[in-house]
Design goal:
The chain has helices spanning 3-10, 15-19, 266-279, and strands at residues 26-30, 33-38, 46-48, 50-55, 67-72, 78-85, 88-94, 102-104, 120-123, 129-132, 137-141, 147-152, 162-164, 170-173, 190-193, 199-203, 209-210, 218-219, 222-225, 231-236, 240-245, 251-257, 305-306, 311-316, 321-332, 338-346, 350-355, 360-365, 371-376, 379-385, 391-397. By secondary structure, the protein is mostly beta strands. Strands 1-2-22-21-20-19 form a 6-stranded mixed sheet. It has a 5-stranded mixed sheet with strand order 3-28-27-24-23, with no helix packed on it. Strands 4-31-30-29 form a 4-stranded antiparallel sheet, with no helix packed on it. The model is unreliable at 1-23, 30-42 and 210-218 (pLDDT under 50).
Length: 405
């Protein structure tokens, strides 16, 4: 069976077919593809992550300023980028079992130095730390923090994510085609580069498609690449989601349907409609394709994440909770008028977890306000804020029951 046929077969699953399944997990082999179908997500209890410790200071003992990026390595080491540290932007590493961070490099434009601006950050299989800066400079450091090399990749821009790849390669997003009037960040390809910055391959984004569970709800595909080079493509709507591995052949890893999709509270929905209206005044490539807020939330809240213990983590939408007002953005019109938008609702971060065989482990919820969550085995790290909005690092222990399902 060829790839095109497999893709069309995977996307032919309908709500009626899924509704006919029991809440138990079912596997069906069709040619060389294994389909794992379940509405189990609605029946597995939500488990709570436990906070183990909190770190409030950077490598020199001063409070964090603005934690822009986190990355966990295969040995449990944690890389942290503070965009507004005590001495400017600060890259640091927390070794397994250590109680304090060690600084890596410093602010500047020389070898091993860096600037701020919300970088991409990753740790490769051999412990190499990868730092991508906004203007296309990529730095590589050994696991102990020693600088290896850096290079400039022209023509990259937009998303600044960076992902480890196989055989000492890595992936980062390419920029839009020169002169393109409109583009979607979700459709930017990934470049595969070697350790010297030579471009080896261009990995295309999966094509946009109608939602695989509800064909009336069309979205661009959320996707990522995992360290062995495979792409994971995620399609979701207000009923459920499908996740596919596209290499070496297209195969449906998981399809889940919610019995009771989360619903927007009236005030929450009204606030978010104002955010959408505000977003339509941004440059074309940054605008959302959605212009009107629905009553029901989509099941998935973002792109899938993959950790070094071979698990996939899918962020899911939950019921909104009213919090303090926080600003989301400002926009200056052509006439010089400054407009801003703010929200007062938030959701407790919640993730569905399963492995590459489609085995479902359950859901885990984190405290309200935890962000930038990264995973490794039964541990997660994230960013939390104090009463005066000061950022801190938090280590969480994931429930042992996640391994029992």
């Amino acid at each position: 069976m060829n790839r095109a046929t497999l893709l069309s077969t995977a996307l032919a699953i309908t709500p009626a077919l899924l509704a006919a399944q029991s809440p138990q997990e079912h596997r069906r082999i069709h040619g060389d593809t294994t389909f794992v179908t379940s509405s189990k997500a609605a029946h597995v209890p939500i488990l709570e992550a436990t906070r183990l410790r909190t770190l409030t200071a950077g490598p020199d003992g001063a409070p964090f300023g603005r934690i822009d990026a986190l990355a966990l390595g295969p040995n449990g080491s944690l890389a942290v980028f503070d965009g507004n540290g005590n001495t400017g932007p600060e890259l640091s590493i927390l070794s397994p079992g250590a109680s304090a961070l060690r600084r890596i490099g410093r602010e500047g434009d020389g070898p091993g130095e860096y600037r701020g601006g919300g970088p991409g950050l990753a740790i490769a299989a051999d412990g190499t730390i990868l730092l991508r800066q906004l203007k296309g400079v990529i730095n590589r450091y050994r696991a102990d923090g020693r600088f290896i090399n850096s290079f400039f990749i022209s023509g990259i821009g937009g998303l600044i994510d960076i992902f480890p790849g196989p055989h000492h390669t890595f992936y980062t997003h390419a920029g839009p085609t020169r002169g393109a009037a409109q583009f979607s960040f979700l459709q930017l390809p990934l470049l595969q580069l070697d350790s010297m910055g030579v471009i080896l391959d261009t990995v295309p984004a999966p094509p946009p498609t109608a939602g695989a569970v509800d064909s009336k709800f069309a979205l661009s595909v959320l996707w990522t690449v995992i360290p062995d080079g495979r792409r994971l493509a995620l399609r979701s709507d207000k009923l459920g989601y499908t996740l596919q591995a596209l290499e070496p052949r297209a195969s449906l890893l998981r399809t889940d349907v919610e019995a009771t999709p989360p619903r927007f509270l009236p005030e929450e929905r009204q606030e978010l409609q104002l955010v959408l209206d505000f977003g339509q005044r941004l440059p074309p490539g940054m605008r959302s394709p959605i212009t009107r807020m629905p009553e029901l939330k989509q099941l998935l809240a973002g792109a899938p994440a993959f950790d070094w213990s071979q698990r996939i983590w899918l962020p899911v939408h939950t019921a909104g909770v009213k919090q303090g007002i926080r600003a989301l953005g400002r926009h200056e019109s052509a006439r010089g008028q400054v407009e801003s938008v703010s929200v007062s609702y938030d959701e407790p971060p919640e993730f569905a977890s399963f492995d590459l065989s489609g085995h479902y482990y359950g859901r885990v919820r984190f405290p309200l306000g935890a962000t930038r969550l990264v995973f490794f085995g039964n541990t997660a790290w994230g960013v939390i804020t104090g009463p005066d909005d000061e950022p801190a690092l938090a280590e969480f222990r994931l429930p042992a029951a996640l391994d029992a399902h």
